[in-house]
Structure formats: structure tokens, C-alpha cells
Amino acid sequence: MNNDENPRGEQPEGGASAVPDAPVPPPPAKETTGRQRLKAGLWPPRLSRAQLIVAVLLFGLGLGLAIQVRSTSDDSALRGARQEDLVRILDEVDDRTQRLEDEKQRLDDQRTELENSSDQAEEARKQTLEKERQLGILAGTVAAQGPGITLTITDPARAVAPDMLLDALQELRAAGAEAIEVNGVRVVANTYFSGGAGDVQVDGKKIEAPYEFTVIGKPQDLEPALNIPGGVVQTLEKEQATVLVERSDDIVVDALRPAQRPDYARSSSP
């Protein structure tokens, strides 16, 4: 038998007995006050879905009640009025509405009338100015500008007679000339040529060769009218004259005639 074994459980000599370690007691729990426990129970909030729905419904109900109370307080004056007072108030509102409608209609009618009269007056003014401009061009009292031609006639032989220049003027008028100037003299309805070959006068004013016609009109019509067979150009060339026709998109006729007031004629329009 091994001497190290101790079947009897005797303690070895000179040694201390083996005693197991005692458990360590936990630290005493910290006491909490009632306020701390209440705070811990309320925050953070622990809301369930049902509680959230109930809260929303309660909020909506409270808002509706507040609106209803306010509406009731606003209408309290009318709710307490007598039937006769309510009828009178309703009649006053109807009368005021009718007066406002009548005033609106009256103002609309005035605006329409002003717009129509203004438009008519403006249109009449424009038409008057346009008619005045056209008559001024025909009468030679205003300058004119537009497309046209320049007809230049040189007469080295001094053989061009006044009637030849008058024929040229008539051809230009027939071709649609709207404004004509000859050597600085404005041509009008009663313009005439006088004198003799080499001594030509326009409306009593002497002009010298070369004779220059400044004409406003459609160039495509004016130039062919002068060049027709047996026309103005061929007649002048037979007299050893030289004829030059130049088209232009910008012709200026600025020779003016003084406006003359008729002695007897008066406008027949009211």
C-alpha cells in the first residue's frame, strides 16, 4: 500500500486543514427615490401602436372641438338675433350686393365706351393723317421717298422741245408715277411745260439741260413705259438726245410747292 494514501482522513502533520473559500456577498443595492422611478418609467416613452393611434384620434377630436367652439362663438350674435332682425340683415346684404353689381356693370359699360371711342378716334386720326400725307404728296406740299427711277436727258443739239418733255411726263404718270421732280421743280396736277427747244420752262421756271426727272413709282413699270417702240426714248434719240434710265430702291423727291388756299372752293363734307 502506498504510504501517501490516507484512508482515515487524518490530517498531515504540521499542515493546515483545507477549508473552501467563502462566497463574496454582492454590494448593497443603491436605493432610488420615487421621483427617479417615475422618471425612469416615463422616459424614454414606450408607446405601442395602439397607444399611438389613440393619441392621434384624441388630438383630432380636440382640434375639432376647438374649431366648433370658435364657430359657435362667432355666430353667437346671429344665433341670438330675432327673425325680424335676420330678415332685415339678409335684405341689406341683398341690396348691397345688387348695388355693387349695378356699379360694376356701369363701370364696365364706361370702360367699353371709352375703349370703343378711343379706338375709333385713334383709327380716324390715323386715317386722317394717311389721307393728308397722300394728298400732300399729290399736291407737292410734302416730301416723298420710295423706289423709282431717274431719267436723265442730255441735249447737246438743243433740239429737245417742251412737248417732248411733256410726253415723257405723261408716259411716267400713265405708268404709275406717284411723285415727280424735274430739275428741282415739283410736278403737280397742273404742271405745264412752255418755251422752245433749248429754252424750256416748267411752270414758268426756266430749266437747263440735262433734264433730270426724279420719279417715285414701281421701277418695273416705269422703265418699260419709256422704252416702248416709238415711245419717248426713240423720239428723243431722233433729236440727237441721249437718254439714261437708272432704277433705284431709294428715290427722294423733296422739292416742295407752297400750299395754296382756294378762293372759292370749299369742302362739301360736314
UniProtKB/TrEMBL annotation:
<keyword id="KW-1133">Transmembrane helix</keyword>
<feature type="compositionally biased region" description="Basic and acidic residues">
    <location>
        <begin position="1"/>
        <end position="11"/>
    </location>
</feature>
<dbReference type="Pfam" id="PF05949">
    <property type="entry name" value="DUF881"/>
</dbReference>
<keyword id="KW-0472">Membrane</keyword>
<dbReference type="InterPro" id="IPR010273">
    <property type="entry name" value="DUF881"/>
</dbReference>
<feature type="region of interest" description="Disordered">
    <location>
        <begin position="100"/>
        <end position="127"/>
    </location>
</feature>
<feature type="transmembrane region" description="Helical">
    <location>
        <begin position="50"/>
        <end position="69"/>
    </location>
</feature>
<keyword id="KW-0812">Transmembrane</keyword>
<feature type="region of interest" description="Disordered">
    <location>
        <begin position="1"/>
        <end position="36"/>
    </location>
</feature>
<comment type="similarity">
    <text>Belongs to the UPF0749 family.</text>
</comment>
<protein>
    <submittedName>
        <fullName>DUF881 domain-containing protein</fullName>
    </submittedName>
</protein>
<feature type="compositionally biased region" description="Basic and acidic residues">
    <location>
        <begin position="100"/>
        <end position="114"/>
    </location>
</feature>
